[in-house]
Design brief:
The protein is built from 5 helices and 5 strands; from the N terminus they run αααββαββαβ. The protein is an alpha+beta fold and 195 residues long. The strands form 2 sheets. Strands 3-4-5 form a 3-stranded mixed β-sheet, with helices on one face. β4, α5 and β5 form a beta-alpha-beta unit.
Length: 195
C-alpha cells in the first residue's frame, strides 16, 4: 500500500470515527439527562434530530436542492475513488528496462519476482523467499520476505541479498536504484541439546 493511500485511509477512518463518537456521545449524554448547549439541534430525550419544520425549511429555496445533490455527488465520487484505490492491484505488472538506444523494453513483473526468489533461495542459509514488486514501472520497489535457517546471521544474509540478488536485478534491468524492504524471519526449530 502506498504511503499516500495509507495516510488517506487513516484520515478517513479517523474522521468517520471521530464524527461517530461525537454524535453518539452527544445523543447518549442528552438521553441521560445532560442539558445541551443553547442552539443545539435537539433539546431532550424525547426530541427528534430533525423536526418537520427543519426538514421542510429550505424546500422552497432555489439553491437548496442543487447544493444537496452536489454535496452528495462529491461524497459518492470520493467513496468510489477510495473503493477503487483499495481494490487496485498492488503488484507491478511490468518493469521498463532501459536498452540504451532511446527505446525501452518491458519485463514482466512476475518474471523479475521469480528470478529474485530463485536467486535469494539459492543463497546459503535462506530457507525460502517471497518477493512482490510495487511502485511505478520505471521506478519499482521490492518487498521481500526471507525465511532464514537457524545458523544464519541476519546482517550477513541481508548483506548478501543486497549485493547479490538485488544488485543483479538492478543491473540486469538497467535501473539506477532498486529500493527494497526486506523482512527477515527465522525458521522455528527446537533447542539443541548440549551434552
Amino acid at each position: 500500500m502506498s504511503p499516500v493511500l495509507r495516510t488517506v485511509n487513516r484520515v478517513v477512518v479517523g474522521l468517520v470515527g471521530l464524527i461517530l463518537v461525537v454524535a453518539g456521545g452527544s445523543v447518549l449524554a442528552v438521553g441521560l439527562g445532560v442539558s445541551p448547549p443553547s442552539g443545539w439541534i435537539y433539546d431532550g430525550r424525547h426530541d427528534v434530530l430533525l423536526s418537520r419544520a427543519d426538514r421542510y425549511r429550505w424546500r422552497g429555496d432555489a439553491w437548496w436542492w442543487p447544493v444537496v445533490i452536489a454535496v452528495l455527488a462529491v461524497c459518492v465520487l470520493l467513496a468510489l475513488w477510495w473503493l477503487v484505490a483499495q481494490l487496485r492491484r498492488r503488484r507491478l505488472a511490468e518493469v521498463l528496462v532501459d536498452t540504451g538506444d532511446g527505446e525501452g523494453a518491458l519485463l514482466r513483473g512476475r518474471a523479475l519476482e521469480g528470478v529474485l526468489v530463485g536467486e535469494a533461495e539459492s543463497l546459503d542459509g535462506v530457507e525460502s523467499a517471497r518477493v512482490r514488486l510495487t511502485g511505478r514501472r520505471s521506478a519499482p520497489h521490492v518487498h521481500m520476505g526471507l525465511l532464514l535457517e537457524p545458523h544464519v546471521e541476519p546482517g550477513a544474509a541481508l548483506q548478501r541479498i543486497s549485493e547479490e540478488a538485488l544488485g543483479h536485478a538492478r543491473d540486469s534491468a538497467g535501473l539506477a536504484a532498486l529500493p527494497a524492504e526486506v523482512r527477515l524471519r527465522a525458521v522455528k526449530h527446537r533447542a539443541e541439546r548440549v551434552s
